[in-house]
Design brief:
Blueprint: E1 18-24, E2 27-30, E3 34-48, E4 57-72, H1 77-88, E5 94-101, E6 109-119, E7 135-142, E8 144-149
Antiparallel strand pairs: 1-2, 1-5, 3-4, 4-7, 5-6, 6-7, 6-8
Length: about 160
């Protein structure tokens, strides 16, 4: 039998192990009440017709960054920012650092910074007699991204 490389099961990243930080005016705050986060990149493309080809070609014309985050309802930071926008018209932009770090994996950790993060919505007030844990779903956009630390390229044993 020949040797076949496979993914080592311990290198599958545990999604619960990591951290999310919000950075505002150089102050970094752990969002320990974050339950999940998903930031997506979408490339905008234009269809281009080319002489001599029956098929359509596509050219990138830009991109957009959007995301969603679910948080336990237990911080006033985003509510304060929303109320400042309501009362004064001053919007808030942040950096967000998202780190995956599973110590049982040999591929290490990954940290991505999202820049120009702007939250689309937040819950201003909430009560639910049927819930033992209040949470809120937040949508956001971002204007840039960088990888601060990347996973190691790993070839199994």
């Amino acid at each position: 039998m020949g040797y076949q490389e496979t993914l080592r099961v311990q290198d599958v990243i545990n999604g619960a192990l990591g951290a999310v930080y919000l950075v505002e005016n150089g102050q970094r705050e752990l969002l320990m009440n974050c339950k999940d986060i998903n930031a997506e990149f979408k490339k905008n493309k234009k269809e281009i017709k080319v002489l001599g080809s029956a098929g359509a070609k596509h050219k990138a014309t830009g991109w957009s960054g959007t995301g969603t985050m679910t948080m336990y309802y237990g911080t006033s930071k985003l509510r304060e920012a929303a109320i400042k926008y309501i009362n004064e018209g001053i919007d808030a932009y942040y950096e967000m650092v998202v780190t995956n770090e599973d110590p049982s994996s040999d591929i290490g950790s990954q940290s991505v910074v999202l820049t120009g993060v702007n939250f689309d919505n937040t819950v201003i007030a909430k009560i639910d007699i049927n819930s033992t844990e209040l949470d809120e779903q937040i949508n956001f956009t971002y204007q840039g991204a960088n990888i601060l630390e990347k996973f190691k390229d790993y070839i199994g044993e």
